[in-house]
């Protein structure tokens, strides 16, 4: 005989009731009733409960035809869908109206009103935000150690993400209490009709989103309420939080989010020369995009999308649509050698389609075909055009240890490898000698920067190492296997050939066409390399990877990225001890105009991105700080957020402060 006392606090089945409530999210009454039916078998009870995230993924269609489900009672949000529409006035307010009998679409008049059969009539906040998750137990905060004694509760974890500043360590600790398969199975479930990764993206925290992706979250998930794809939600999220969400957008693209789900206009920022042709693909405009992927984007969402998208996001969305996806065999090979992240390189670097294509193909082919010789890559191109940045990205994408040497400081062979016995200091070796010893037989990266400044003695000391893939340790005279080391030689010695090729081809032919590169550029680079480094060393270099000057559109994107970084820096909280500039919101009146103006005025082909970084510092950051310091108020750690606008007036960048009563963002 089962009594009520058994399910009350202190009873024999109290813990089972609490676990079911936490796991399923049902009421205590329902949990007790289900336990009684299932003879207090917790597992059977969980299977029997009909919560949405516990249902089978493939419904029984025959049973549904015989017993059609009744429509559930309308909640407040559902009633709003049926009875309200929203007019967005110029002051941001919304006014409820009765939905008309037939669909109609009105042009903006003092605001925006959109009514179609497909448009959910909800408030602006409902369109762009997630449901507020209420905890089932409000008497205690979330603790990751709950996982040690309770079932996995996705709802409670997401509630903590919404309401508590969970650290990455807290999330990882909570996941660690469960088998990985259990987390993988639950991570793609939906709460309140929204896949869990939406809640992770809503935090705008890269570490949280990376964790969700690492546990198998679907980057192409769809909001079950309004059919908005995750990528579009990440773009909209910037206007909700009043924070830049570009990092999250690029992260999703790098992990396979479909760019075709987001319609973009190419008339604001284009990259007709810079994308697609590198892989033999054809650019796709908005009219060529698949309608099925973009059915969610009605007139309302399209308008909001145009407002939310920035220059950097448009560029990488266009690039993602133009790039061909890797073939199944390429993916299979990359998976075998754990280098699948290599395919995300196009979403980490602006421009350099030629370099990315050659580098990806050469790295994969070197891994697939066993070779006793190491891979030696010559990164050639003007300063400031991504050679060092690509090397740094390879380190993180391939998860390889990297050792970088500035060759301007290396004059003698002993500077590079250390003295030989019995000379003084031989027992200590050198940084490169010790790195090669530690990575013997393992894959790693060695980058020799400013390689053209090496002396002939240093160049000759590398010949056997590059040719045979072995090296004799200076400390112990022991042979080291260096066949898996990836050598990157960064040099400006071939700059005249590359810049001349770019000037002659950038406007006349598809510069990234593999045939053009193979037939015209590579032979000239090979001849220049032999002339500069000599035949012995040139014959041991596996591939020349050319880095071309940036196109005007790419220059604008780089400027915009520096502006985003500046905005993040000045948005930080003020600390009177070491951070006097903070609590500032930098807004670009027209990010395309500001970025293109700075790029066209300040880009220097000889210094590349460094010239654009300097332009942002002198023409935006310095005037911003000057305007900030001109204020008569005392600097305080609790001072309200101040808004500054950067705009173009008469061809010049102007920084102005927005009066306090007109600030358009909330205090952070």
Automatic annotation (TrEMBL):
Compositionally biased spans, kind Polar residues: 118-132
Domain ATPase AAA-type core: 377-504
Residue ranges crossing the lipid bilayer per the database entry: none
InterPro entries the UniProt entry points to: Ankyrin_rpt (IPR002110), Ankyrin_rpt-contain_sf (IPR036770), ATPase_AAA_core (IPR003959), Clp_ATPase_C (IPR019489), ClpA/B (IPR001270), ClpA_ClpB (IPR050130), P-loop_NTPase (IPR027417), UBA-like_sf (IPR009060)
Keywords assigned by UniProt, alphabetized: ANK repeat, ATP-binding, Hydrolase, Nucleotide-binding
GO terms under biological process: cellular response to heat
UniProt repeat feature ANK, residue ranges: 192-224
Gene3D superfamilies: 1.10.8.60, Ankyrin repeat-containing domain, P-loop containing nucleotide triphosphate hydrolases
GO CC, any one term: cytoplasm
Basic and acidic residues composition-biased segments: 96-105
A GO term, aspect molecular function: ATP hydrolysis activity
Organism domain of life: Eukaryota
Clp ATPase C-terminal domain boundaries: 585-632
Annotated Pfam families: AAA_2, ClpB_D2-small
Disordered: annotated span: 49-147, 264-291
The protein, known as: P-loop containing nucleoside triphosphate hydrolase protein
Source lineage: Eukaryota, Fungi, Dikarya, Ascomycota, Pezizomycotina
């Amino acid at each position: 005989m089962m009594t009520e006392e058994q399910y009350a606090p202190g009873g024999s089945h109290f813990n089972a009731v609490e676990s079911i409530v936490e796991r399923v999210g049902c009421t205590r009454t329902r949990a007790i009733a289900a336990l009684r039916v299932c003879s207090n078998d917790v597992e059977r009870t969980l299977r029997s409960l009909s919560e949405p995230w516990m249902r089978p993924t493939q419904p029984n269609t025959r049973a549904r035809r015989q017993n059609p489900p009744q429509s559930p009672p309308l909640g407040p949000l559902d009633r709003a869908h049926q009875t309200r529409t929203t007019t967005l006035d110029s002051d941001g307010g919304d006014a409820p109206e009765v939905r008309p009998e037939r669909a109609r679409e009105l042009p903006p008049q003092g605001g925006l009103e959109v009514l179609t059969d497909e448009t959910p009539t909800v408030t602006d906040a409902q369109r762009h935000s997630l449901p507020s998750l209420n905890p089932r137990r409000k008497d205690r905060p979330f603790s990751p150690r709950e996982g040690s004694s309770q079932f996995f509760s996705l709802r409670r974890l997401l509630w903590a993400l919404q309401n508590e500043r969970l650290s990455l360590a807290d999330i990882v600790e909570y996941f660690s209490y469960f088998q990985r398969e259990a987390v993988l199975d639950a991570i793609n479930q939906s709460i309140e009709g929204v896949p869990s990764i939406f809640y992770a993206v809503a935090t705008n925290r890269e570490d949280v989103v990376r964790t969700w992706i690492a546990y198998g979250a679907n980057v192409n998930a769809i909001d079950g309420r309004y059919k908005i794809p995750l990528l579009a939600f990440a773009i909209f999220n910037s206007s909700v939080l009043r924070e830049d969400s570009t990092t999250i957008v690029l992260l999703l693209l790098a992990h396979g989010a479909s760019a075709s789900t987001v319609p973009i206009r190419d008339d604001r920022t284009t990259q007709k020369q810079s994308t697609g042709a590198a892989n033999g693909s054809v650019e796709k405009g908005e009219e060529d995009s698949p309608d099925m992927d973009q059915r969610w984007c009605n007139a309302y969402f399209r308008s909001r999308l145009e407002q939310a998208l920035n220059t950097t996001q448009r560029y990488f969305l266009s690039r993602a649509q133009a790039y061909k996806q890797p073939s199944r065999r390429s993916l299979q090979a990359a998976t075998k050698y754990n280098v699948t992240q290599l395919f995300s390189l196009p979403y980490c670097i602006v421009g350099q389609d030629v370099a990315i294509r050659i580098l990806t193909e050469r790295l994969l082919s070197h891994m697939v075909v066993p070779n006793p010789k190491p891979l030696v890559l010559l990164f050639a191109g003007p300063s400031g055009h991504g050679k060092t940045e690509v090397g740094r990205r390879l380190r993180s994408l391939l998860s390889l240890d990297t050792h970088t040497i500035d060759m301007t400081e290396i004059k003698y062979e002993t500077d590079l490898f250390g003295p030989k016995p019995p000379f003084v200091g031989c027992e200590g070796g050198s940084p490169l000698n010790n790195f090669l010893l530690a990575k013997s037989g393992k894959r790693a990266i060695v980058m020799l920067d400013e390689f053209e400044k090496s002396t002939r003695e240093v160049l000759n000391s590398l010949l056997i190492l590059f040719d045979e893939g072995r090296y004799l340790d200076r400390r112990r005279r022991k042979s080291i296997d260096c066949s898996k080391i990836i050598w990157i030689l960064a040099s400006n010695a071939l700059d005249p050939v590359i810049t001349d090729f770019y000037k002659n081809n950038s406007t006349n032919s598809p510069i990234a066409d593999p045939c053009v590169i193979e037939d015209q550029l590579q032979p000239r680079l090979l001849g220049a390399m032999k002339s500069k480094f000599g035949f012995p060393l040139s014959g041991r270099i596996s591939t020349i990877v050319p880095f071309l000057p940036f196109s005007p559109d790419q220059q604008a994107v780089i400027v915009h990225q520096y502006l985003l970084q500046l905005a993040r820096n000045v948005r930080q909280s003020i600390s009177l001890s070491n951070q006097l500039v903070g609590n500032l919101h930098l807004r670009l009146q027209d990010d395309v105009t500001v970025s293109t103006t700075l790029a066209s005025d300040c880009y220097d082909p000889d210094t590349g991105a460094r010239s654009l970084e300097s332009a942002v510092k002198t023409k935006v950051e310095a005037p911003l700080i000057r305007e900030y310091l001109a204020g008569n108020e005392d600097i305080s750690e609790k001072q309200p957020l101040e808004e500054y606008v950067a705009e173009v007036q008469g061809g010049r960048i102007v920084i102005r402060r927005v009066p306090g009563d007109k600030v358009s963002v909330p205090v952070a």
